[in-house]
Structure formats: structure tokens, C-alpha cells
Structure of Flagellar motor switch protein FliG:
Amino acid sequence: MEDVSGIRKAAILLISLGAETSAEILRLLPESYIQKVSYEIANIDYVNPTEREEILNEFLEMSQARQYVIDGGVDYAREILNRALGAQRAKEVIDLLNQIQLRERPFNIARKADPMQLKNLLLSEQPQTVALVLCYMQPDKAAQILAQFPLELQTEIAERIGTITSTSPAVIEKIEKVIENKFSSYVENDTETVGGVHALVEILNSVGRSTEKNIIQVLEERQPELADEVKANLFTFEDIIALHASDVQKVLRHVDNDDLMLALKGVSDEIRNFVFQNMSSRAVETIKEDMQFMGPARLSAVEEAQQKIVAIIRTLDESGEIYIRRGDQDAIIS
């Protein structure tokens, strides 16, 4: 499990717990995590039973270990886990728990900050301060920031990182407050466009329909105005009816017949007839006959087929071959 990311573990855990329980858990997560975990869930086609069992066991062990620490401290947790899991596994669980708790402590704002913004802020700090902050950051992010410093400062900062053995909690807290205050002020005066509705729409257009619907539903409960804005910009398969006839015909040239049949099984007669109007009578007849004999289809298969067609539509839109009207944008006049 060492090579499996935390987000993937969370996704597999939620899949294993079932839709109802997972939906309740997702509602309690920050929106950024909902997006990441939902995207991962949407991209997992199959979970190896052994991997699933290991992740469930790890979750149970971590939950128990955290409770033992709360009840009686690290030594108490280690003693109980030694008896239950053996010395080696107990050490692995405690080490992982310590890593998680460490990420929850100093310089949390630095770990979440944009690397370039943080680099610009740290350029005015002393090398010792920069070294301390980088020690508490993700290694890849710390490396990215360190590489932006002048060569002579890179060496000095690296040297100080290598010689830090311990630091007073009071000193860490003081530096952390200074960094947080400066960063908050810096962000107010020097911001760049990142995230927002456009980024969310881009993500939602890439996930499965069920995931998309779940996230929109949560947004409608938490932030109705944001949900309305996202829906105004979000292109779904049903929105194909808003495309110009000539654009629909261009799209259909790139669509596999099997995907089209599956996609049309999950829509209203209005949308199905609209698509048929933009096909030759012979092609429509063939599709209708094939649909009669294909029998029932899984919802996930229908949504996957629809998502494939949406991806084609987005690709053609981005290349300028067709036009998708978004939100309150003006229509194109021919």
C-alpha cells in the first residue's frame, strides 16, 4: 500500500462502503476533497479484492490507533497495537499516524499555498526561516520552491535544512504566525486566477455522470448560487439539444454507433428524436433496429457512453469546429 496515494485509498474505501454511506461521508468533506476523491472514484474501473481488504484493514487500524493515542498517549497506543498487530505492524501504524498528525500541525497554510506565491513571500525571509518552513512542507513542493532561489541561497538554505535537529515550539509558533500574516496580506495584494467556476466545470465535465450529479446536489445544498453558475456553464449530454444542427452532424461523424445506441437509451424522446433528425434515414433505421435487440443496459454503461460523446463535443468546441453556448454568452449570428 506504500505506493497507493491517499486520495486513491479514500476513493477505494468509499467504494467499499457503498453509495449511501459514501454520500454521507462526502457531504462532510471540504469541497476540494470532494472533487479530488470524486474524480478518483470516477476513474476506478476495478478494485482488486486484496487491495480493498488491505485498505479497509489500514483504515480500521488507523482509526483504532488514533483513538488509543487520544485515550492514553503514544506509548499506550504502541503497547496496545504491539499486542494486537505485532511489533513491526504496530510501528508502521504509529509512524503513519505521526506523519498525518505532523501534516496537521505547523505551517499548514504553507503546504496549501501556491508554490510561486509562497516563493515570492519567502524571498524576503532569512535562510534559517525559509529552511524551517520547507522542513514542514511536502518534499516535492519544497524542492520546487527551493529551485526558484538564487544558487547561493539554495546552498545556504539546504545547509540549514540539513543541520536543523530541533526547534522550540514557541519559536515555530511565532514564525508560523508571521508567515500566515504576511501570506494573507500578500494574497490580498497579489493574486492570480486559480480554481473558481471554470476550473470546477472543467473537472465535472471529465467525471462520470453519477459523480457529477452528486457533486451538483451537494453544491445546491451548500452554495445554491455557485451551483446555479456551475450548471449554467456545465455541458451535459442532454445539452446536445442546444447545439446547432450542423454542429450535431459534425459530432455524430466522430461517434461510434455502439456508444450512440447506449447513450440514447438514457434520454427522453425529445432528445432522441433531435439526434435522429440530424442523421440520415438509413442510419436512423439501423440504430433503431439495433436498439430494439440490444436489451437492457447498465446505468453506468449508459453514462460512460454519454460521457464519451460529451468529450468529443468538448474537443470539437475547443478546436473551433463547433460552438457551445455557455451561460449568458451571446449566440453566434451567421
Residues 188-194, 327-334 have pLDDT under 50 and may be disordered.
